[in-house]
Amino acid sequence: xxxxxxxxxxxxxxxxxxxxxxxxxxxxxxxxxxxxxxxxxxxxxxxxxxxxxxxxxxxxxxxxxxxxxxxxxxxxxxxxxxxxxxxxxxxxxxxxxxxxxxxxxxxxxxxxxxxxxxxxxxxxxxxxxxxxxxxxxxxxxxxxxxxxxxxxxxxxxxxxxxxxxxxxxxxxxxxxxxxxxxxxxxxxxxxxxxxxxxxxxxxxxxxxxxxxxxxxxxxxx
Length: 221
Fold this sequence. Notes:
This protein is 40% helix and 14% strand. A three-stranded mixed beta sheet has the order 1-5-4. Strands 2-3 form a two-stranded antiparallel ribbon. It is elongated, with a radius of gyration of 22 Å. The chain is α+β, with helices and mostly antiparallel strands.
């Protein structure tokens, strides 16, 4: 789980945008890999701070993050970042070309894209074909039968393009299974017949998480 973005930048949750910007400027100067070649963790720390600033500097993303946290950003299909094409673009926007040293021009991997898709419980049991948007156009994805709520799939290399010869990011799909409610008598009877026919091999449990079929039985019961 990523660290809290406010904690990363060292600001309070009510910090105004100028304070958030000042905090990132300070961290960027301290953590930039070009001046921390001796610290193998500097680049990851720098990227973490950049991601935090990208989210908190964008009012819409910040509002989603404040209400729902990292999961809200992922479920809402927001990629990490506030619309900057690259780290260089971000630093240019923050420092206005006066960063004090040359920005690294080496290959950088593109950002991942996140997309949440909702399917019914029946689709989860039987498998389904879903259509999702990407920067390459609409794509069809085959979901296997028995897919569980919260399952993620990655399409390698279908995220945003990399920069300076770096590889593209991934397109990540998050599955949300909708358990039906307000059942009619006929629907309830069908659900009860299904429940009675289920065998242990049908109920694939997940560690530290209630199984999908357990949630269905509780909802139908």
